[in-house]
Every structure is written in structure tokens, then in C-alpha cells.
Amino acid sequence: MEPVTGPEAEGKVVACLHRLRRLDGQPGEVMQARIVPELHVVPVASVMSKFTEPWCHSEYFIHLKRLFNAIASRHASEVKASALLTGENLGQVSSQTLGNLGAVELAGGLPVLRPLLGLDKSSIVDMARSLGTFDLSTGPEICDVLGPKHPTTVANLEWLERSEDRLGGLQALVDAVWEGHRVVSL
């Protein structure tokens, strides 16, 4: 269990993946064939707590997303994936500003597909409701409990990389957390 989020975050993801895999009709058939029946859970809290230091705290959310992107890219290379798929939406949160998305994408080395990028929040919520995942995914959001009050909205790539290097480098951080990952069978 992640000491920051608790088991609830993982439970939401598992419930949503089960729902998507059980959809009726063609979307369900496509999802059943495309969603691998396992979830890789990577404990990142110990690394993310390092980005709460005053010298890098305002970039916390960008570091979080860069770490996620690099972890996903590592796993993608193991399964021979050619791209990453995210639910990012332009401008909804500080890490999703145009100035930050590029810095996040550079952390992984694979193209990032963002099908929701230009949609407004109400359209995304409507889609989640129609898929039956909205109610499953709602609840207290505690993933940003370590984040700053005033996050950076325009990344400075040199500063981000310097901050990561100060902690041993992004790849070393990825390797450290990947060693603790576990697989949850769906």
C-alpha cells in the first residue's frame, strides 16, 4: 500500500478496468481484447516525497508526471509498446499546461497519445458516465496531498533535470521504484 494514497486509489483503478473490460457490445469486445488483465502497481511515494524540498517543490506535479511517464516508458519497452496513452487534458491542472506537457513527454522517450487533450471537462465527464466509470472513479483526491499551493505552470526543463540529477537522476529513480512494483491480476 502506498503511504500517501492508501488502497483506495488502486481500488478505483481496478474497478474502472474491470468495468471497461466488461462493457457490452463492440466497445466491450475491443476493451476485452486490448486491456491486459493485469495492473502494474509502482510505489512512488518515497521518491515523490523527495520533491517536496523547498528547492523543487513548486515543480512537484511536473516531477510526478515525468516520473510516471518514465515508469510507463520502461514498462512499454518490456511489452514492446510503441506509444503511451494518457487521459491528459490541456489546462485542467497545472501539470497539463502547454508549458508543462512537453517537459513531461520528454521524460519517457515514447510518443504520448492524448485523445482527450482538447475536450472540455463536461464532455469527459459525460463520456465517463456513459462508460460507467465516473461513479467508480469519484471520491476524495489525495494524490496531490504533497503538492504545492502554487505549482509551476511553465516548466524549465534544465531546472527539472538538475533537480532530478540532484536525487541521482530520473532513470535511477525509476529503477528504484520499479524494483518494488507488483502485479495485480484483473
List the topology elements.
Layout lengths: L6 H15 L3 H10 L3 E4 L3 H4 L11 H20 L4 E2 L12 H8 L6 E2 L7 H11 L2 H4 L19 H10 L3 H9 L3 E4 L1
Parallel strand pairs: 2-3
Antiparallel strand pairs: 1-4
Counted beta strands:
4
Shape: globular
Give the number of helices. Answer: 9
Euclidean distance between termini CA atoms? 17 Å
Highest CATH level, the class: Alpha Beta
- The overall pLDDT average reads 90
Describe this structure in words.
The protein is mainly α. The chain has helices at 7-21, 25-34, 45-48, 60-79, 98-105, 121-131, 134-137, 157-166, 170-178, and strands spanning 38-41, 84-85, 112-113, 182-185. It has one domain (44-179): 3-Layer(aba) Sandwich (Rossmann fold). The chain has 9 helices and 4 strands; from the N terminus they run ααβααβαβααααβ. Helix 4 (60-79) runs parallel beside helix 5 and helix 4 crosses helix 9. The two termini are 17 Å apart.
